[in-house]
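pls design
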């Protein structure tokens, strides 16, 4: 058994800035507790930052820790892998304490909805199968109706 705490700032990691719209950083919790069946992150979105459009090959669970955020689900139209049309099908407001499950291969974005306050959540990425790497596919989009490329 391993014990850790999500508070404290000594183990912050920067994230790939191409995957977010603003300043975001995270802590890798799964490394601290040595879990092997999922990757666990504590992700902090500064004032209005959110993820770019993406999907995962495994399920994901988000647990809101601080602030107000949103999860937006999109539907893909077209058969091209890197350029296609999109339409938002659902928007879920996330408040402190909220938990949401995102099924594998669901096109989505999530992050802060307040330009003046930060938002954070714990993300649990559940590995699709034993010994299979969890993979995220990231897209450049206008968040309204068009995806222009894979990042």
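designed seq:
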């Amino acid at each position: 058994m391993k014990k850790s705490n999500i508070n404290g700032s000594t183990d912050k990691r920067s994230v790939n800035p191409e995957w977010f719209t603003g300043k975001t950083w995270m802590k890798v919790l799964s490394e601290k507790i040595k879990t092997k069946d999922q990757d666990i992150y504590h992700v902090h979105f500064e004032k209005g930052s959110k993820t770019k459009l993406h999907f995962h090959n495994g399920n994901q669970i988000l647990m809101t820790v601080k602030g107000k955020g949103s999860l937006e689900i999109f539907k893909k139209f077209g058969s091209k892998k890197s350029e296609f049309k999109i339409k938002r099908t659902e928007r879920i407001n996330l408040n402190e304490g909220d938990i949401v499950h995102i099924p594998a291969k669901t096109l989505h974005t999530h992050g802060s909805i307040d330009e003046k306050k930060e938002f954070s959540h714990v993300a649990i990425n559940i590995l699709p199968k034993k010994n299979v790497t969890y993979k995220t596919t990231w897209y450049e989009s206008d968040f309204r109706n068009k995806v222009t490329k894979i990042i």
